[in-house]
Amino acid sequence: MEKKKLVINSSVCDARYVSESTLESYESIVINAASIIVTRETRELLSRYNISMNAADVTEVPADAELMIENGKYEITGSTVILRPAVLIVNGKLDIGKGSQESLKKFLSITVNGSVSFPSDMKEQLPELNVNGSTDCYPADAIRLKSNLVVDRTFIIRAKNAKYYVKNKVVIAGGNLDISKLVEKGAAFITKQAIIAEDLLEEALTLFGEEVDIKTIPKEFSYVSDAVLSDALVRKNGNKLFVDGDLTVNNESESALDKLTSIKVNGTVLIIKKFMDKFQSLDAEYNEIRTIKGKILSDKVNVEIDKRMVTKQEDGITVTDCVMVHLNEDITPEEIEKKLEFTDCGCIFCSTDQRSAVELVSEDVGRIDDSSRMGLSAMKEMAEGLHLFDKDTKVVNTVKYKM
């Protein structure tokens, strides 16, 4: 009886339990996966057969370990219960909390496609850790707050004689804040940047170390965070704006742009090309200015872009600050160059044919991965030698596959 061929397309392929009889039953096997999990024995077994593996990583773990796949946000604390040794794969954000040493002992290895944070005294307690993204190791003796903190009256009332860790920035934007109370309590901030209202600057500086980058909000300017320029924004905050983060000027921004008298942007201006001259006439201040496509997709863990989305958006799509972006293989390289733009994204999954086009329209992208989502044309090239697309080929498409 003639043997079939097997093609596996999956995010994770668990090959710890594959048997020799299974491998012998196929003429050839192709595995396309972000992660392939093997044991020492099955790794050696796989090497003896006609098997092609296209993967971002191949991890060797015991057969009796639990395989945990978490999408989005996952937290390990002192109360996390893991019944048996485990391998953890997080697609998104992993937070390892204080006092979680005992829980961590149950993890044989951890892979994070996104970001991970942990206290400094846990550094030596971590299992094998592979991170495709960013790592934040914060001081163990500090109280950790959110990545960005806007100080208000409630925070001042509740503050202690303690160090507060804020990963990115602390904002003290005025509004009758009594900063002297924070100073009297002995509070201090560990952060990268501080944005302080001009009339509070002198007193507030004592809360920060000399290494902190200080930005000042001028008098008569209203503080706003990441914003899309609109009539509603100007009505609420006035015609002089201090924008902390990125400012988007899109097709609906023209009326608001006419009302502005001054603007300072502590970040990047994302602007449609036709409004560039009008914006520059304001004598605007900014860190960077960048022309964009019409539609913005931002701050998402997973983004799937298909042919319909690209076709529908005549002015194109800008994808920014997203952890994982998946491109359907039916989007042509020409459409990618004309219609798509990627900035500050963790990982873009595309086909081999799409990769060069994605590289041309990407900026500050952590990784472009064409290994786990092989496109149709690339698979056909491989098929010329392996005859994968004939009637004797079995194709499996799944998120997780157990051999």
Note the main attributes of this structure.
403 residues; 27 strands; 20% helix; flat
Mean pLDDT: 88
Q: Strand count, sense and closure of the main sheet?
A: 4 strands, parallel
Query: Looking at the structure, what is the overall shape?
Result: flat
- The share of residues in extended strands comes to 35-45%
Number of strands: 27
Poorly predicted spans: 373-388
Rg, nearest Å: 26 Å
Helix percent reads 10-25%
Number of helices: 13
Alpha carbon gap, first and last residue: 22 Å
Structural class: alpha/beta
Spatial ordering of strands, largest sheet: 3-2-1-27
Number of domains: 5
Topology diagram in text:
Elements (H helix, E strand, L loop, with lengths): L3 E11 L5 H5 L1 E13 L1 H7 L4 E10 L5 E11 L9 E11 L4 H4 L2 E13 L8 E11 L4 E2 L3 E3 L2 H6 L4 E3 L3 E4 L6 H7 L2 E3 L2 E5 L3 H4 L8 E5 L4 E7 L2 H7 L2 E10 L4 H6 L2 E10 L4 H5 L4 E7 L3 E4 L3 E4 L1 H6 L4 E4 L3 E4 L5 H7 E4 L3 E3 L5 H6 L1 E2 L3 E3 L6 H11 L6 E10 L1
Parallel strand pairs: 1-2, 1-27, 2-3, 4-5, 5-6, 6-7, 8-10, 9-11, 10-12, 11-13, 13-14, 15-16, 16-17, 17-18, 19-21, 20-22, 21-23, 22-24, 23-25, 24-26
Q: Care to describe what's here?
A:
This protein has 403 residues and is of the alpha/beta class. It has five domains: 85 residues, no CATH class; 73 residues, no CATH class; 75 residues, no CATH class; 70 residues, no CATH class; 77 residues, no CATH class. It contains 13 helices and 27 strands. The strands form seven sheets. The chain has a four-stranded parallel beta sheet. The chain has a four-stranded parallel beta sheet with strand order 4-5-6-7, with no helix packed on it. Strand 16, helix 8 and strand 17 form a beta-alpha-beta unit. It is flat, with a radius of gyration of 26 Å. The protein starts with a strand and ends with a strand. 32% of the residues are buried.
